[in-house]
Amino acid sequence: MARSWTPQARSERLDAERRERQELAHRIGRTLAAEFNDRQVEGGGWRHQVAPVNFVSVLLTHPSGMSLSLTHEGSYRKGAAGRRLTVRGGYPSEYCGWRAEPVTVGIDTSTESKACQIIRRLLPGYLSTFGAARAMQQRVQEETRSRQRLNRRMQDVLPALRAAPYEQPHADARKQSHWSAAQHRPDGTSAPRAHCSGSVRLADDASSAEVLKLTNVPADLLLEILALVNAQPVLEGRVMPRMISPQRPELPAAPTVIHV
After folding, report:
1. CA 160/CA 193 separation, integer angstroms
2. 8 Å CB contact between 32 and 48
3. CA-CA distance, 34 to 120, in Å (whole number)?
4. Which residues contact 191 (CB under 8 A, 6 or more apart)?
5. Would you list the domain boundaries of the chain?
6. In this structure, which long-range contacts are made by residues 151-157, counting pairs with CB atoms below 8 Å and at least 24 apart in sequence?
């Protein structure tokens, strides 16, 4: 006959299982970090963190920014297949290139075996891509700072400039901005904020505007804008006469003196 669990007993059992998984995660992370440090993997300095989740999840971190995550993803599988950890290399969020393929190691295998498998099967591919990931991260961060600087300058020139709704969380480094010619007041009236409405989309590195769109542009302003865009400005005006000084007689040639 199946045992009937009371709500309190079920809660206590789940808490005990959760604590057991957390203790297992700490033990795996602590011993594996110590093994990596003993082997001087990438110079040592490895530490471990355990995620506060209801399954085994360990993160090994390195001072260089590298990280390795070990997660128990196959608990629903039967037998030995359900007792394996998936190991992945961590990358900066800015990186969108190729990543090393994850590997699996047995939960119940020794720490030395786990370390050997990770070093042999995962680290070569991970180390070969992590340098490119850091370079891309630095480039993206520099591009972000460039957009922030240009957005501040554009905001000073045109205070009506606003971020697109989908870029609000990162408005200071946004690529897309827009503005409206009229500002609606609470009483229903509107006040002019710009001579026309429009939008602008910056390049990733803020070196140029990929798209500049203007709407409802007055004719006079249109001519001024086109004149600024024209790389070969047209000369305007009329020919005006000017006084020319009278001609002067040509000076006689100086005599040539030959000394004997």
Report:
1. 6
2. yes
3. 17
4. 182, 183, 185
5. 13-140, 158-229
6. 151/177, 151/202, 154/200
**Which pair of tokens denotes residue 57?**
């999840």
Facing residues of 178 across strands?
Answer: 162, 199
Q: What phi and psi, each to the nearest 5 degrees, are found at residue 53?
A: -120, 170
Residue 110 to residues 28, 31, 94, 117, 234, Cα–Cα distance (Å): 10, 10, 35, 11, 81
A 10 A CB-CB count for 214 gives 16
pLDDT per residue over 162-215, tens digit each? Answer: 887 777 767 899 999 988 888 766 666 666 788 899 999 999 999 999 999 999
Euclidean distance between CA atoms 207 and 94, whole angstroms: 20
Of 132, 128, 126, 123, the C-alpha closest to 40 is 123
Q: What is the pTM of this model?
A: 0.69
Q: Which residues pair with 106 in a beta bridge?
A: 84
Sequence letter at residue 8: Q
